[in-house]
Hints:
The complex is a heterodimer of chains A (about 325) and B (about 280). Chain A is built from 13 helices and 10 strands. Chain A has about 325 residues and is of the alpha/beta class. The interface of A and B includes residues 123, 151, 152 and 228 of A.
Amino acid sequence: xxxxxxxxxxxxxxxxxxxxxxxxxxxxxxxxxxxxxxxxxxxxxxxxxxxxxxxxxxxxxxxxxxxxxxxxxxxxxxxxxxxxxxxxxxxxxxxxxxxxxxxxxxxxxxxxxxxxxxxxxxxxxxxxxxxxxxxxxxxxxxxxxxxxxxxxxxxxxxxxxxxxxxxxxxxxxxxxxxxxxxxxxxxxxxxxxxxxxxxxxxxxxxxxxxxxxxxxxxxxxxxxxxxxxxxxxxxxxxxxxxxxxxxxxxxxxxxxxxxxxxxxxxxxxxxxxxxxxxxxxxxxxxxxxxxxxxxxxxxxxxxxxxxxxxxxxxxxxxxxxx
Amino acid sequence: xxxxxxxxxxxxxxxxxxxxxxxxxxxxxxxxxxxxxxxxxxxxxxxxxxxxxxxxxxxxxxxxxxxxxxxxxxxxxxxxxxxxxxxxxxxxxxxxxxxxxxxxxxxxxxxxxxxxxxxxxxxxxxxxxxxxxxxxxxxxxxxxxxxxxxxxxxxxxxxxxxxxxxxxxxxxxxxxxxxxxxxxxxxxxxxxxxxxxxxxxxxxxxxxxxxxxxxxxxxxxxxxxxxxxxxxxxxxxxxxxxxxxxxxxxxxxxxxxxxxxxxxxxxxxxxxxxxxxxxxxx
Lengths: 322, 282
């Protein structure tokens, strides 16, 4: 039953080998240029982060490069620190996250990538002893604002985890979970429509349309992960966070998820943590490199992998370290 | 002796000791069951289920005692079950890391191992003395207090077995904690929680001491919760100690009945576990 889609995925994979890089640069560059052009025209009209780079430079010396502000950033993070008890897991991370773009976070284990990801939807709140300082703004609103309901915040930010974690419910109910708890569907027909379109976008519809009532836990690992993605996009989030979404999957399933990420980034901002540098190179337009809790360098994926500015980044991507 | 030979000798010794320990346990279990069946089966008849407890020397059954046991057990679990489940939910979810939880967990463990006669005395002071007489409701409350810590413990353990990833997924979807608990955690832990409840039922259906101080006994049919009510454990206790052969025979039958129903409950619990399965798989 898997034959047809899998072969397709394989072909897509192969066709996206070497030629994919120039295409990606073609996509990414106009945006960067546009950002720079807009910044030159009216630098003062930028978001509040416009003046930040100078102070960030002073504060951190030569340890890392200054943050590049993006004019239309979804997330603006400035000097984010995370402490687990007395241990500091994240040090002065400043980064902007652009809409309709994939940002890959790479770095050795324990460097704070996932910690940073979990800051963005305040999942660190659920860990006892965790403390977050600094400013994180989603569409200009501070996500730590006491007036902001963290539950509502999380509804706007989808998250896909390392291990596929479908609920112990039917495939249908898994996807319908979010729309149900947020009251997105007024009628049964509308809910059916949301479930159908989410599963279709996640590339799972054809495989499960005849067994929507069977448990989601009965699917294969790759299917489960696509089910989790369908569940996430069913509530139309603004941003999707992915924490090593492919590390528990085989190469074929991984290829399918990566194709899906390519497609989803037409509509969503995606932040993906990955241990695979190939994956970062394949799916992302921007890449950030974390090292011991610091964001060492962030920039266009092509630039980071071909011409890293920082010694640590170079060591990591060339495999001399970690 | 070579090191390898020494190791295999140590292994054989450990295996023999643990085998012996198992055999000792199983021997006594088998002996109890055998005695029970041998003495109880003879007295089993339709009359046991259809007639009231008899006066000495005449024939009768255990109907009023069976009814009383079922009634008090059902009421007991209806009170103790939900309270225990909610407390277990607090310990596992809302208050998992709070200091209050540590205290509650400790107190619960104390209650779990408290002698049941103490609980009987407690309810005697609390209800029987105030009401002025023994009553079925006092018996049910005593059973509820015994069922509660068992349910708290099993519920907490079962909820903690639900993978953190599943809870995180629901939280990250923007679900409030109550919603995550009701829609995700309970369904995932359903079979375990139900098993815990059945085990609590099994536990309280054989309790004697707390009923001795609360429901006492009743020679006649009574469905009045405010009055003393017959129940199997106390009837067994009373009849077994009596000098009358027909009472002694009924005590054996009652003991067999309780043991068999606990066995059925335990098997039912196992079947439920395997049919619902972990994570609601069918």
